[in-house]
């Protein structure tokens, strides 16, 4: 196969949802179709939910397991599918945001009863910002839920995206009859008893066909005809081009638990979804079909498996062919590495690979040299962008509690924040270290890992802040004045960039009003 053919057959994506909407169940069903696993329950998801802060030990245990589900690759109908796993717990949302930097498209799972939830909204915002092609899977049709039109309306209103239904449900809950495929006019009947994978659809020659009445009963058939007419009048037609631009989102309905609507989702997804796309670097655009290898680190996993002490850095191949035992340059340090045991992931299995193509994820063992966002190339100085840090929402001062272990603490904080567990800032005025996170659990994880991996101990002091935002201005006078007035609220991030520590939404608003020439940013990447 040529490199172009290898690229064209790859689909690298993530399934995301608010916890409990059914992401894990859907992922597992897709893996069953792909033959990557053979029994339900085989994937130990890295779902860390229903945990409280005191359960962080459980989280650590799960993190150890989850390395094998970080990437779930399988072959289906000659496509190479790479599903990138994302944490189920919302305190780890930043990991999810970063994973989204390595995918070419996403499937968002929504619970028909709950509709758009907070995490759905946050994740969808990130996808919209990146213009990532998005498909919605409305799940749990075997239960009573909201009217499908209202759920779609809610998605359109809250997530600001034009939806296009591809399948449409006939009733729900106890009366759920199945879904109608609007593009192919096929009827998929639901049988709650029959949970087999292959259910052959019926081809419906026209909406007026009596086949509909026979299969669904007169009342249901009439309702479906009405719904389909409305859909065809109200929603724009599906075009792949608009979907690929991120302008429209195809919507599918089903029940992941019952394996219903999942095969249709998978097969339509494979045809619609984009192959590996161009990547942007500070220097230039990188095309996947370029002959030279390039890639970036989007995730670092401290492998807690007792056999391996090293961390695994996950590299997304952006161009060319990655080859084992070939010298590649780590652009940040300009050091050359040969990876002798690069790992690929096929669901729960890991194996050493000789080659990887654009869209694939390669895991390489690392002893603390890589950080999130780093590029690896054949020598060209490329800096991939689109892997920003997001403004944290919780902040604490971190203090050393063992004067003899100062160095260990500094190293631990440096490495853990390189890994993306949290962000590290230094207060400009007092030089104190501040840890910023998106979830409270990370503070416990950091303290635990500092102690167990670096023999360092720390304590926290609460720092009630609203947001940390990056800022810039071309108006030097105003910038200087701002910095002078806000000295007590300024910090530096790890790259030495200034950050404003806003203690309330009001103080941020006032800063914006009083210093109109200064622009404030909630992500670390801005031009
Ligand atoms: P998540 O990864 O998005 O957090 O969700 P997950 O797949 O774990 O699903 C959350 C709960 O919803 C699970 O039940 C799961 O069985 C259920 N579920 C998923 N899809 C469907 C569906 O199509 N219909 C129905 N009725 N339920 C569905 P649980 O009781 O929380 O967990 P478990 O004990 O079944 O694992």
Explain what the structure shows.
The chain is about 30% helix and about 30% strand. The chain is built from 14 helices and 31 strands. The strands form 7 sheets. An 8-stranded antiparallel β-sheet has the order 27-24-26-25-29-30-28-31. Strands 2-3-1-4-5-11-6 form a 7-stranded mixed β-sheet, sandwiched between helices. Strands 18-17-23-14-15-22 form a 6-stranded antiparallel β-sheet. The two termini are about 40 Å apart. It binds guanosine-5',3'-tetraphosphate. Guanosine-5',3'-tetraphosphate (G4P) binds next to helix 2.
Main structural class: alpha+beta
Provide the β-strand percentage band: 25-35%
Strand order of the largest sheet: 27-24-26-25-29-30-28-31
Q: Regions with pLDDT < 50 over 5+ consecutive residues?
A: 44-56
Q: Characterize the biggest β-sheet.
A: 8 strands, antiparallel
Q: How far apart are the first and last residues' alpha carbons, in Å?
A: 40 Å
Report the average pLDDT across residues: 87
Question: What gross morphology would you assign?
Answer: globular
State the helix count. Answer: 14
Oligomeric state of shown chains:
single chain
Hetero groups in this structure are: guanosine-5',3'-tetraphosphate
Helical amount? 25-40%
Number of strands: 31
Radius of gyration: 25 Å
